[in-house]
Fold these 2 entries.
Entry 1:
Amino acid sequence: GAGVSQSPRYKVAKRGQDVALRCDPISGHVSLFWYQQALGQGPEFLTYFQNEAQLDKSGLPSDRFFAERPEGSVSTLKIQRTQQEDSAVYLCASSLGGGGYGYTFGSGTRLTVV
Amino acid sequence: AQTVTQSQPEMSVQEAETVTLSCTYDTSESDYYLFWYKQPPSRQMILVIRQEAYKQQNATENRFSVNFQKAAKSFSLKISDSQLGDAAMYFCAYRLPHGSGNTGKLIFGQGTTLQVKP
């Protein structure tokens, strides 16, 4: 597609519920990043994929967070047993490669845990 | 660890005037990239301007320019002839070059909300 697409745009989950957030990057983009952005704060890195390989998951806050990109294109961020502190905007960004390539961001999914 | 600090939570500017947003960062690396991103209410991060650390010349993009002071680890954004459409949250960001174990992940500051008054 022309841009990075994320769905759903909004998600309300009851505490304890599992959620899955989808990111559809620009076709052909090798690199894919997930970020978590709390209200009024800057985004914080969660995880990085190069094609289907998850090369860095150092930013995932707990083992309740899991991300995958099985065919090197669409990625899913899954949060198990959601808690109130998981409420945030989850941004996805993709890029053609490394080096000086720019990143294209999606519009994010706003997750609210009640 | 690398950090990025934006000390101005909010800034205000009159339409057609000039405003400068501040950013400082901390790193022990000599080769890196710096960015300013704009985030409107639509939430999508839009790249405003980028600077390679090895370039001494300050980057410019139309009404946007930076003042990059490598020794002081300072990277401010100047917006000239401010327009109503410039109102948004602005983030300063840093990243290392991709490769040699670096993923190229962005490290963001806390953001500055810019209000443009008509």
Entry 2:
Amino acid sequence: DAMVIQNPRYQVTQFGKPVTLSCSQTLNHNVMYWYQQKSSQAPKLLFHYYDKDFNNEADTPDNFQSRRPNTSFCFLDIRSPGLGDAAMYLCATSRHSTTGGLDTQYFGPGTRLTVL
Amino acid sequence: KNEVEQSPQNLTAQEGEFITINCSYSVGISALHWLQQHPGGGIVSLFMLSSGKKKHGRLIATINIQEKHSSLHITASHPRDSAVYICAVRWGAQKLVFGQGTRLTINP
């Protein structure tokens, strides 16, 4: 089945140790998103890719970076994780066309990051 | 700045009851999403709508663009409907703005 896959589902890292979270999709969607969701809070958009164009949210810390080497894959790099970065990280995709507009977003299962 | 307000924040009901969750937003939008998130789980998109009403099984979503208000209804609620329901509006080309969510608990 076409889907959004995130690996790993659970990630434990040490304070300051770089970590990379992975997202892949078989939907061939041109837009991919990374959200951060802390406990009992709404998801917060970190950035998104529209095709290869990277769009960073103004309040996303520089500690968070992203790469999209191809349509199917998108990575979230946290260069120096702090205790406050412990959260669920959600990847989502959607399809946008110039004629049809933006389709609904499809979310992955998330990666829960623990920082020790 | 677009604000998205959901009510109630928490809702507990008995199995079989008719459930309504409300969402209000402050500025014009291009679309509104209703999402479902189970504890510890990812998010599932239930509906995307920009006008009128949509129905899928026991779920119904309505939107009133003039009043900037949407409702999600669940008929014949079941314990498996227990989850957090999130309203999100599309503001701008791709960005979603999320409400704080409504935690729904359906008791058997």
